[in-house]
Specification:
The chain is mainly α. It has 16 helices and two strands. A two-stranded antiparallel ribbon has the order 1-2. α2 (49-58) packs across α6 (122-141), α3 (64-75) packs across α8 (185-210) and α4 packs antiparallel against α8.
Length: 349
């Protein structure tokens, strides 16, 4: 397993001159650093499960979770270079969850190319997902070689393990609600808090812990990550109605095919007339023609104002996340955390 001793992430800037330029370009620089580290994570000579892991990591998306970890460490005054392995491990854990999702959902495409189970089979995909989860913990332990105190690593380990446990609980609860056709917005938000927000929360909180944040600072970033994660889940649920698979890189019929009750559908059901509700339920039962069902649901969510209402809820969570940052010191790390959240807010404009 390769260790990373490459270039250091950009230092925290003060906001003027050279430091100001670093602050403006910081996110792009960190993304490049993370992509290089991920590319080096698995030796090109490795076969079997190593090759599958390398394939899974090769098409990393926006790297929001590892960026969140790095910026959280900076926001509390920590050195991002010392926590880079943990950030890489965060992406490994996230990609593992995507592999397992694709096995469960039967999706053939992920990030614009064949999904891992479609390319290698469910058995190899399951092994690769498990391997990446263990690698996430191994990467976290590597931070000790970069000067992070052992007690911080143990605390971060507890945070990461708790987030992973919540993710599994959220996945299980979602399956229960889907099987029961439960049109419950409160239950949906609980799934979002567990399944998606837990990983955002865990990435930010572990970064703040590894960076040496105070209890109050760690709590603020925990709140930021939780609300950002809920907003991200709502945004993801809106994609079939505001975008296309060519843009998102994954099937836009996946939720419909799996009869998943996302927030736009729940809000549409709540606002719909009797005939509209029946049409919505009928479309969800139409698993043989998911594309036709999606077109029907798109018309209903538009007619009931559900898309706009869901976007408004996502915006509220982004704003709450931004408010949580106000208690942190004014640093480039805090500013870039804000930019990560604002980028999601801008997507609704």
């Amino acid at each position: 397993m390769a260790r990373h001793s490459g270039p250091r992430p950009p230092a925290v800037g003060a906001g003027a001159g050279e430091d100001g330029a670093v602050e403006r370009e910081g996110l792009a620089a960190l993304r490049l650093l993370l992509r290089e580290a991920l590319a080096d994570r698995w030796d090109t000579q490795q076969k079997s499960v190593g090759a599958v892991c390398r394939y899974a990591l090769a098409s990393s998306g926006k790297l929001l979770r590892p960026l969140l970890l790095l910026e959280a460490a900076q926001a509390v005054g920590g050195d991002p270079h010392s926590v880079l392995p943990a950030a890489v491990g965060t992406e490994c854990g996230h990609v593992a969850s995507l592999i397992h999702d694709d096995i469960i959902d039967g999706d053939a495409m992920r990030r614009g190319r064949p999904s891992v189970p479609h390319r290698f089979g469910a058995g190899e995909a399951l092994l690769a997902g498990d391997c990446l989860i263990f690698d996430a913990f191994a990467a976290l332990a590597e931070c000790r070689h970069r000067g992070v105190p052992h007690d911080r690593i143990v605390m971060a380990l507890e945070v990461v393990a708790g987030a992973g446990r919540d993710l599994c609980r959220g996945q299980s609860l979602e399956a229960e609600l889907t099987a029961a056709s439960c049109f419950d917005i409160g239950a949906y938000l609980e799934v979002a808090r567990l399944k998606t927000a837990a990983f955002f929360r865990g990435a930010g909180e572990s970064g703040a812990v590894l960076g040496g944040g105070t209890t109050a600072q760690v709590g603020a970033i925990r709140d930021f990550g939780r609300h950002l994660g809920i907003a991200f889940q709502i945004h993801d649920d809106l994609l079939p109605y505001i975008s296309t698979s060519a843009v998102t890189g994954k099937p836009d019929t996946s939720d419909v095919r799996n009869r998943r009750l996302t927030l736009p559908l729940l809000l549409a059901h709540e606002a719909a007339s009797g005939p509209q509700r029946e049409a919505l339920r009928r479309a969800l039962r139409d698993t043989h023609d998911a594309e036709h069902a999606l077109r029907t649901l798109a018309r209903l969510t538009a007619a009931t104002g559900a898309v706009a209402a869901a976007a408004a809820q996502a915006e509220n969570h982004v704003r709450t996340a931004l408010q949580a940052l106000q208690t942190l010191p004014t640093t480039a790390g805090r500013a870039r955390l804000g930019r990560l959240a604002q980028a999601l807010l801008i997507s609704y404009r």
